[in-house]
Specification:
Layout lengths: L3 H15 L5 H16 L9 H45 L3 H18 L2 H11 L5 H8 L3 H18 L4
């Protein structure tokens, strides 16, 4: 190494090319100089020092940029995980029971209103008044099979309309 100040200037310029206006440059420059100092005895006389310095500076700068990118990714991942935890916590605290009950109740009412009058009456007698099929059949003057058919029809309509719940 004939001229250390020229060498430093060369390293400085090469590193600046990769880390223009970046604080990584000031963190990388000592590593470049240290690596060059360690390898000085293994360098051959005919080694193109400019090319060697350029390669060392480039590789160190790229390594630092890759490390910084990885750190940023970890920080962003941690932020995302924290955000997910906060969202999950908020969802667990949200009381959806009343909301869901009100919505289901309105769907059931709408479905019952859409049924034919006899079918609606049979279903209400069966489920809300807790009458047996035989009792419903006797009070309406129909067969038990007809009552069962009306109940089945109402249950199918409810299942269809409540499939998302």
């Amino acid at each position: 190494m004939k001229n250390p100040s020229k060498l430093f200037t060369t390293i400085f310029i090469r590193a600046c090319l990769f880390l223009f206006h970046n604080m990584l440059f000031f963190q990388t420059l000592p590593k470049i100089l240290f690596k060059l100092w360690i390898k000085r005895s293994t360098l051959k006389e005919n080694t193109n020092l400019n090319a060697y310095i350029y390669t060392v500076a480039k590789n160190n700068c790229l390594k630092r940029l890759r490390d910084q990118k990885y750190r940023n990714k970890i920080i962003n991942t941690q932020v995302s995980e924290l955000e997910l935890e906060l969202n999950a916590s908020a969802l667990f605290r949200l009381d959806t029971n009343t909301l869901a009950f009100d919505e289901i109740n309105s769907i059931v009412k709408a479905t019952l209103e859409s049924l034919p009058p006899t079918c609606k009456l049979v279903f209400e007698m069966s489920r809300f008044e807790m009458l047996k099929n035989q009792e419903i059949a006797e009070s309406l003057g129909t067969s038990v099979k007809t009552v069962e058919g009306h109940i089945t029809k109402a249950i199918k309509a409810l299942k269809t309309n409540l499939k998302d719940y």
